[in-house]
Structure formats: structure tokens, C-alpha cells
Write a structure and sequence with these properties.
Blueprint: H1 2-8, H2 12-23, H3 47-72, H4 78-96, H5 115-124, H6 128-150, H7 156-182, H8 188-192
């Protein structure tokens, strides 16, 4: 069961958000450079409906990732599961509640997003490379959140899109490496910890 949950997270979080980001390039009176992706929800355009569904799919996939990671080794991944649930709530609420509402992002629960790769790095024991990449993603995520909160970002649309590619791409990376470590030929998770 955990393998199915991890396999879906190799593609779904990134694809769910990448689709509206790419389609937004052709939306009139919208700037992918200076406007956030969720601002598509406010437009009188068919993409508004997609932008309500995409974050819900992304968030659901992140929750399933956390559950899959935890099921792969329940004694090891409690914090990754909890932070995944919080990050998931951020994305799901961003789809349910329109941009501009305080419930869009559940009053800032998105600040848990950097903790998912950080907790995974601490709990996985998958080796130095996975640790470094995961911590780099955590730092990039936190830097983006600070930049967004400070209001000092003149190209906030571009910054958000780049951050989303890094953040959501990490789920593909983490799922791939965990599935590889769990494969019988790899000797299970304990055998991968020495890598």
C-alpha cells in the first residue's frame, strides 16, 4: 500500500500545479511574472475552475505522500507525516477558499512546508545526498516564504513558480529515493541508511 502512495507522489503534486502554471501563460490580463498562481481563481476564465481543483489534488497527494512515508516505517517518520498533513492543509484550503480570504492557506499554515523536507532529512537516514538536497529545499522554501511575507519581491509570480517547482519537485525526488531504499535489492530501509 505504501508503495502506491509513494508512487503517486512522484508525479501528482508537481503535475497538478504545473498544469495551471503553464496554461496561465496564455490567459489575457494576467501576468505570470507579477501575479500569484492562486490569483487565477478570481478571473472570469475557465482556468479559474482548474485553479480551484489543482491545489486540492496537490494537497491530497502530499497527504498521501506523508501517509506512504509513515506506513513504510511507522517508528521512523512521525514528524514527516505530521508536517505533510499541515502542508497538505495549506494546499487544500488554497483550492477551497479563493485568494484574498484568510482561509486561503489556513492563516499561514504554509509555514509548515519547509518542515516536510527537513523532517524527512532528519528521519529518513537515506544518506548524505538525500539529506543535503532535502535541507536545501527546506531552506529555499523558507527563503521564498520570507520573501513573500516581506513584500519585497517585485516578481512575486515568477518567484512563486520557481519555488513551487523546487518544493513540489522534491516530493518526486524523496518518493523516488525512498522507494529505491525500500526495494528488496537495496536491503530495505536499514541497508540504505548507510549510503
Amino acid at each position: 500500500m505504501h508503495q502506491i502512495l509513494l508512487r503517486q507522489s512522484m508525479f501528482l503534486p508537481l503535475v497538478a500545479m504545473l498544469l495551471p502554471m503553464l496554461l496561465a501563460l496564455g490567459v489575457p490580463h494576467y501576468s505570470s511574472l507579477t501575479q500569484h498562481v492562486s490569483e487565477l481563481q478570481r478571473l472570469d476564465h475557465p482556468i479559474a475552475d482548474l485553479m480551484r481543483v489543482a491545489p486540492v489534488l496537490c494537497g491530497t497527494s502530499i497527504l498521501l505522500f506523508g501517509l506512504g512515508v509513515w506506513l513504510s516505517c511507522p517508528s521512523r517518520f512521525a514528524f514527516t507525516l505530521l508536517t505533510s498533513a499541515a502542508a497538505s492543509a495549506n494546499f487544500i484550503s488554497a483550492g477551497i477558499f479563493v485568494s484574498g480570504s484568510p482561509l486561503h492557506g489556513l492563516y499561514g499554515v504554509g509555514f509548515f512546508i519547509p518542515l516536510v523536507p527537513a523532517c524527512f532529512a532528519a528521519e529518513s537516514g537515506l544518506g548524505r545526498n538525500v539529506l543535503r538536497i532535502s535541507l536545501c529545499v527546506a531552506v529555499v522554501s523558507m527563503a521564498y516564504l520570507w520573501l513573500n511575507l516581506s513584500g519585497a519581491d517585485p516578481v512575486r509570480g515568477l518567484s512563486q513558480r520557481l519555488a513551487l517547482l523546487v518544493i513540489l519537485g522534491w516530493y518526486s525526488y524523496a518518493s523516488y529515493h525512498l522507494l529505491r531504499a525500500l526495494a528488496p535489492a537495496a536491503g530495505g530501509l536499514r541497508g540504505a541508511a548507510g549510503a
